[in-house]
Amino acid sequence: MFEIAPLSTSFSALITNKINNKTKPLGALGKLEFLAVTLAEIYSDNAGAWQQTLEITQPNLIVFAADHGIAAHGVSIAPSEVTQQMVMNFANGGAAINVFTRQCHWQLTVVDAGILVPVAESLGVLNQRLGAGTQAIHLQDAMTTAEVIKGFELAKSLVAEKHQQGCNLIAFGEMGIGNTSSASALMAVILNLSAADAVGRGTGISDNVFKHKIKLVQQAVDRIKVSQPTPNEPITLLAQLGGFEIVQICGAMLAAAELKIPIVVDGFICSAAAMVAKLINTHVSDYLIFSHASGEQGHAAMLDWFDAEPLLDLDLRLGEGTGAALSLPLIMAACGFYNDMASFESAQVDDVVTNQ
User: Fold this and answer.
1) Quick one: pLDDT at residue 353?
2) For helices 31-47 and 12-20, what crossing angle results, to 10°?
3) Which of 169, 160, 183, 166 is nearest to 70 (CA)?
4) Which is catalytic among the residues 33, 41, 258, 320?
5) Residue 325: closest CA among 111, 99, 37, 91
6) CA 186 → CA 68, 97, 191, distances in Å?
7) Cα 48 from Cα 150, distance rounded (Å)
8) Distance in Å from the first CA to the final CA of the chain
9) What is the tens place of the pLDDT at every residue in 145-177?
10) Please, what sign has the CA dihedral across residues 274, 184, 324, 16?
11) Sign (positive or negative) of CA dihedral 242, 243, 246, 247
């Protein structure tokens, strides 16, 4: 379904030379330099020619929302009804993600991927429902493989539409009570960890609820290991442990990489989707920009698995795509210095870098 080419390094030397000849010591702009290289390599590969200037057009952040069957079993401080309530909050412009996307100039799309009760179409929420919430993953598979494939198809069409409208930078967020349990289970299986090493406190649960959450996630992981000792088929893994929103985020990431669009990865849930996407096609990693280090305990292990250094570390654990949204000013700064910062030659400044 997805044909993702490895990112070409044909223009890497030109890009690196351009950055190194800016009026600064080598590497002095730190992660912004790595970010500029990543963007320049992607855009140059896409154009088939070295891009001496970088331009972000129509940046889109898409929030996928869905409910989880495990939420009915006491793993969160909030009931599943909060998912729908927050989707309505998104639609009405009152959530953190609305504030940050407005402030940082993202275009925001909210998608119902499978909440328990759909919201009125008049609110402008896009209907890509795969069902009314998943099954409880500690008891049975979350969904069917057919539903996973359908989710991929819907996500691919949506990303293609954004691309046709001129989007060349995309990010994803999520909303779904119970989805940290699903993401933790996916992570535990992929990294061969215990639930205790993968599960975090999500929305800020008590010690007792935390222990209960670990127990249920471990049941989900054990259920998979019993039925499939080496669960290395990612489509099956998503059907067993995923969420409808996680499925569509995973598919959207693969679709964006196929179109050679840089993908800004949010926190814990989106990183879990990215892990499955990498299992499906390892080349998706070439297009991932990790926006921040989540406050969820398992996120550090995810980032290590990708060998990724996030742009921000703000102890965020809200989800919604908030960390991804906040990274856009840094992405614009990376483009700005790449485009406009003088070279030693143009500024008539002694090249202290290559002349030492």
Assistant:
1) 63
2) 140
3) 183
4) 320
5) 99
6) 14, 25, 9
7) 32
8) 52
9) 999 999 999 999 999 999 999 999 999 999 999
10) negative
11) positive
DSSP string spanning 313-338? -------TTHHHHHTHHHHHHHHHHH
Rounded CA separation 43/258 (Å): 13
* Angle subtended at Cα 310 by Cα 261 and Cα 300, rounded to the nearest 5 degrees: 120
Residues 6+ apart with CB under 8 A from 86: 65, 95, 175
How far apart CA 23 and CA 28 sit, in angstroms, is 10
**CATH code that applies to domain 60-332:** 3.40.50.10210
Answer yes or no: 55 catalytic.
Answer: no
Instruction: Map out the domains of the chain as residue ranges.
Output: 12-54+341-347, 60-332
Cβ contacts of residue 83 below 8 Å, gap of 6+? Answer: 65, 66, 67, 115, 116, 175, 176, 177
pLDDT, tens digit, 9 for 90 and up, residues 187-237: 999 999 999 999 988 767 888 889 999 999 999 999 987 766 445 589 999
